[in-house]
Design brief:
Layout: H1 2-20, E1 24-32, E2 37-45, E3 53-58, E4 61-67, E5 78-80, E6 89-95, E7 102-103, E8 108-115, E9 136-137, E10 141-144, E11 153-156, E12 161-163, E13 165-174, E14 179-182, E15 188-189, E16 192-202, E17 205-208, E18 212-215, E19 218-221, H2 227-248, E20 256-261, E21 270-274, E22 277-281, H3 302-312, H4 327-346, H5 349-362, H6 381-399, H7 401-412, H8 422-431, H9 436-448, H10 452-461
Helix pairs in contact: 2-3, 2-4, 3-4, 4-5, 4-6, 5-6, 6-7, 6-10, 9-10
The protein binds zinc ion.
Zinc ion binds next to helix 4.
Length: about 450
């Protein structure tokens, strides 16, 4: 028995091994927030063995060279653009000798420069042209998330996986900065800092003229809250994290940082997560908006729901990164279900019911395309944020809450190269211990039936 167990654990280890190899990024980044410039002089090492890959780098960054690790010759990369994969980046690869395949060394050096518009006056700014993938210089700071590809990101073409989490040891020089923050390590004061992390992290960089504080386990970056308000936000954060940890039995492994900043457009206002950072972007709707001036309670409960959703992305979005046709089911649908469960627990049944009715109202005239045939881009906002949470709640009514949590935990433990398509949805349900008949019945009644939506709404009203 022992030998079998040993063999089994070995097989599991081997099957996960290629994805356990995390790229390591070292070198120097030079920035000027007033000039809008970025210069990267980096070395990428510990790269996994991939036959079919590309390296993504922001379209505004000009490559001086890709070079071998011993610094003796330049690679001659092929370059192309595939907007369905990334709007923001050019894709590069090194052709092998006969130019038929691709070759990826285990290490390479890269040097690049870029200059971006500094938009410090919204007068001539666009109405809505800021997003997570934008390298945003607002005159005081630079905001660059992993989606911008401000650092080279390896992409596994065959498995449709962006390997954007890296360990790093970086020197950041910014001649006109007061503070520098690289996701995964503590924010620091100074124009020249070293930032290091041994935890694989997607790199959000924020640097410029701003202050930061820490309240217990939570950082507040450019947040402009008073200490009492920070305490309130930290308490809610801990409560939500505690709820998820208890239900999914997987601990949060890092601090949470709230980053509050302005967009470089007139009207954009949104949140995004690059774990452990939750970024709140808006001229008016930034972190300050969550409190009335000089009041130390959150303005309203919808903020707690919002935070629950964003903190839920630690699990679905960070630990487990969905892809394929049901990407939005697993990324946003499940996360919204998590948020609804959280508010039920910490804000009570009545508030939960109100939110459920709001979701039900939103799907009134909505015709969900059946999950086995739906294409990723057909899962629109109503589908992902409203209908899928309701569908999972129907499942909850059928099998009970604990089994749903168990299913969610099972998904989180699944192989990272898994394609999250309809097949995966079914196998994950079965793998979590739900019987074949129960899964079949659920599928027929709530997914395949012509009256699927009616059936979902009917059981929710019971
Ligand atoms: Zn979300």
């Amino acid at each position: 028995m022992k030998i079998i167990k040993l063999l089994l654990s070995l097989i599991i280890f081997i099957s996960q091994a290629p994805f356990a190899q995390v790229p390591h990024l070292t070198g120097e980044i030079k920035i000027s927030v007033l000039n809008g410039t970025i210069v990267g002089d980096l070395e990428y090492s510990n790269l996994p063995t991939l036959k079919n890959y590309s390296i993504w780098l922001n379209t505004g960054l000009n490559v001086r060279y890709f070079r071998d690790e011993a610094d003796t010759f330049n690679y001659t990369p092929e370059k192309y653009y595939e907007s369905e994969k990334s709007d923001e980046a050019f894709q590069y690869y090194f052709p092998d000798k006969d130019k038929k395949g691709k070759f990826l060394p285990s290490k390479f050096k890269i040097n690049y420069v870029g200059k971006f518009p500094v938009i410090n006056d919204t007068l001539r700014a666009s109405n809505r042209n800021d997003w997570k993938g934008n390298i945003a210089f607002n005159g005081k700071t630079i905001r660059a998330s992993e989606q911008t590809c401000w650092y080279p990101i390896l992409y596994d073409v065959d498995n449709d996986v962006e390997i954007n989490k890296v360990t790093y040891d970086l020197k950041i020089d910014c001649i006109d900065c007061e503070s520098i923050y690289v996701n995964g390590s503590a924010p620091q004061k100074g124009k020249s800092v070293s930032a290091t992390s041994n935890n694989p992290t997607a790199l959000l960089m924020y640097a410029g003229i701003f202050d930061f504080t820490k309240n217990k386990e939570t950082y507040f970056i450019d947040a402009k809250l008073n200490p009492e308000q920070e305490k309130v936000l930290n308490n809610w954060t801990e409560k939500i994290k505690g709820f998820y940890e208890g239900k999914l039995k997987i601990p949060y492994q890092n601090y949470v940082a709230y980053l509050s900043t302005t967009p470089i457009s007139k009207k954009n206002a949104w949140l995004f997560v690059t774990y452990p950072t939750i970024a709140i972007i808006g001229h008016k709707y930034n972190l300050n908006y969550y409190f009335n001036p000089n009041e130390n309670v959150l303005k309203d409960s919808s903020i707690i729901e919002l935070l629950s959703h964003e903190l839920g992305h630690y699990y679905f979005g960070t630990m487990f990164v969905p892809n394929a046709e049901l990407r939005w089911f697993f990324l946003e649908g499940i996360t919204e279900y998590l948020a609804l469960q959280t508010i039920k627990e910490i804000l009570g049944e009545n508030y939960y019911k109100l939110q459920m009715s709001a979701h039900i109202k939103r799907v009134k005239d909505f015709n969900p395309k059946s999950l086995p045939t739906v294409k990723s881009n057909e899962i629109n906002e109503t589908y992902r944020y409203k209908y899928i949470p309701l569908l999972i709640t129907a499942l909850e009514k059928e099998i009970g809450k604990e089994k749903v949590w168990n299913w969610l935990a099972t998904i989180l433990k699944s192989d990272k190269s898994t394609k999250t398509d309809y097949d995966f949805l079914k196998t994950s349900l079965l793998k979590s211990g739900i019987s074949d008949t129960t899964v079949k019945n659920f599928e027929e009644k709530y997914i395949l039936s012509d009256k699927a939506k009616e059936n979902v709404l009917r059981i929710l009203n019971n």
